[in-house]
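In this supplementary section we document a worked example of the pipeline. Step one takes a protein sequence of length 684 as its only input; no multiple sequence alignment statistics are reported here. Step two produces a three-dimensional model, which step three serialises into structure tokens for compact storage. The input and output of this example are shown verbatim.
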Amino acid sequence: MPGIFWVVPISGVISVIFAVLLARNVLKRPTGTPKMKEIGDIIFQAAWAFLKRQYTTIAIYSVAIAIIIGVLVGLLGGTEVEGLSQFDIGWRTGVAFLVGAVCSGVAGFIGMYIAVKSNVRCAAAAQKSLTEAVNVALRGGAVSGFLITALSLIGVTVIFFAYGGATNPQIAPHLIVGFGFGASFVALFAQLGGGIYTKAADVGADLVGKVEQGIPEDDPRNPATIADNVGDNVGDVAGMGADLFESYVGSIIATIALATAATIFAGGAGANVPFDDARFLLPILVAAIGVFSSVLGTFLVRTGEQASMGRLLWALRTGIYSAGGLVLLGTAIAITVLNLDFKLFWVVAVGLAVGQIIGLSTEYFTSYEYRPTKALSGQALTGAGTVIIAGLGLGMLSTVIPLVAVVAGIWLADWLAGVYGIALAAVGMLSTLGITLATDAYGPVADNAGGIAEQAHLPPEVRQRTDALDALGNTTAATGKGFAIGSAVLTALALMVAYSQVAKLDVLDLLKTRVLMGLLIGAVMPFIFSSLTMQAVGRAANKIIEEVRRQFREIPGIMDGTGRPDYARAVDISTQSALREMVLPGLLAIVVPVLVGAFMGAAALGGLLLGAIATGFLLAVTMANAGGAWDNAKKYIELGNYGGKGSDPHRAAVVGDTVGDPFKDTSGPSLNILIKLMAIVSLI
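The serialised model returned by step three reads:
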């Protein structure tokens, strides 16, 4: 094994240490006034209660799925691996599944814990300066990013070596796929549960509070306010974190699997290929280099007081771009040391470039600094209908740049290094995940800081600072979703190619009836899945709306501030609805590939993956960008444009934002996991 490989475990340890230091830095900061601390504690307790119930449910399903994997793989057979019986392959894959599920759950749990604790501290920091508030929000979000990278690297490495990767590389790549499946499984349910919870509460709070009662967002008189604050964390921190954890792990596993196929099976190099073949090491090494780069990048995020939206965005970009540059430098050194073809350096560069192009495109279509969202807010002058029409059109148009970027990236990566290059490009895109996820998780921390400032009746200048943070958070969250979608497509394609090699599918002939049938079934899956999740949000939101209306009607003194809303009841309704509604779409993603493969064959399953990736990608971009644009169009009006808060255009924009909420925070992000989960189920 080359000495350079020790960079991998060292980077994992450094990532954990850095996450701990960031967490300590955030937790030692003041929590502000007693009222702020009280609100922060209520949000924390509600978020913690939801996550415990959610992960208990996920744990039960995870154990059941692990047993099913062990039994089915053991009994039905699959890829023959020298040195292991089919029974051995089955139980080891099941154990790897559980380890992946646990790592994903732990990363989401701890990241959400720190993010919730950061909310009130960010609001308190905003009392001092905008710079302080940005630092707290970014560091609170960074804990999740660095924990995810650490657990990914440590988990994949431990499973690989525990299953004999150092001595028998034919075996370990097949078994670590189970680790990726565990990560995908938890990610889907975490994103679904969190997304349904947060949007049910958000829609209920907006429609009754802002539209019917005319009270501000995050007003403490709104019974759904606390549930809404909780939802921002369980959806955008725990859920999105689990999504990107899954992409990160999946891209590394797909690259290793393709290296195995190219080296051992396709290349005909013989059975005794040592583990230290450089193609096995490179994807894990690039990810490890990304950890060091992201740590350094976080120190380069600087902003001044009274900074504009554009200046705040550039402060975050500086950190991300610097981390990307350091990844390229480290990759060049690693490729030289491993004596690999330098074309692989350009593959990693392609992955980073595609990720940045998708991020910038998302920012352009969703930030109110640019023309598309400003034009969308102007549509509110003629009512909610035109806002919705224009938002859908904007979302559909916004698919062009990400699609061209991904197509160009696939072509270049394949030209440079074949199918292995496509998977390595996904690793490159995700290499700076530590800082990228920090800027994404920054969004809900900043959003909740604004909510706490509103509920604690802090001075207007504090609220202005938190509003600036919140508006930036909407854009960074939208950019993070675009990044997650792009990485999901590359990861899913890499997993699909790995599947085709394991299943010995040289070509997929679309003129063959079964392949075409599989493709059509796959193409409709994202639409069925989105329908189920949208309707789930609608049903859950109806219950919240009825409850909020009941409290306004039956609890005396809410509107004049003398009565206290029953926040716990709204939280409980959102929790029960989310846990109940997440089951059907989650199981659908697992069952359909199994049924298609069992009854229609391997080629039909390949067609299903093609169809799902193509339509899932475009639908996810449409929904994420339309939702982000509707949200920021509302924010632009709230800054005083087109009549400002309380005007008819504002009410129209609120309706658009209400439609966009499940688009961008439930259905859109969940599609990323759908296409990756179906691919990894197929591979297993």
